[in-house]
Amino acid sequence: MKTIKLHDKEFGLFISSEKIQNRIEELGNELNKELKGKNPLFLIILNGAFLFAADLIKTFSDDCEISFLKLSSYSGTSSTGVVKQVVGLVENIENRTLVIIEDIVDTGNTLDYIMKELKSKNPAEIKIATLLFKPKAYQKYIPIDYIGFEVENDFLVGYGLDYNGLGRNLTDIYKLK
Ligand code: IMP
Ligand code: MG
Predict the structure, then answer these.
(1) 78 pLDDT higher than 90
(2) Pick from 62, 46, 49, 121: nearest CA to 90
(3) For a FRET experiment, which of 20, 104, 141, 176 has its CA 20 to 30 Å from that of 157?
(4) Global pTM value
């Protein structure tokens, strides 16, 4: 099995590029059926979702728009420590159909935070698309509309996902050995 090394760790091939692309085509069919005529605004969560989003959005054949969101963490002045903030949303999202595009949903904390921020701006509806989902780690009840692959609680890299900055450029997804 193909093995790669990033920093100090070894990873084995887990989901091939071909499987990823085939699954994206299936998700694309669903998106086209369900969102046609709605001019959805795709919200790409940086950095990890950039490759998945690029391939997924190319399958959408009707009008749509895109925007990018990044979560920035900074040390707060209070003892609660790290505070997250959504940066980059400039569009007026009131009454829009939004599609959040994530690389991976793990505990769901990130997604929960993003959902709260977006809901406060009164969109018509919010759909969620994630390439990877770890059901055993998920601690929220927010339903996820489009899931590429359900995976175990393993650490994955490649196709946008990184290990300390490395691995995002890989076309396949790898699992920590
Ligand atoms: P959550 O807030 O726990 O759902 O975590 C989501 C974020 O954690 C993702 O957007 C990733 O940045 C990171 N993450 C979770 N699992 C993995 C993984 O297996 N590999 C790389 N990053 C991960
Ligand atoms: Mg991420």
Answers:
(1) no
(2) 121
(3) 141
(4) 0.95
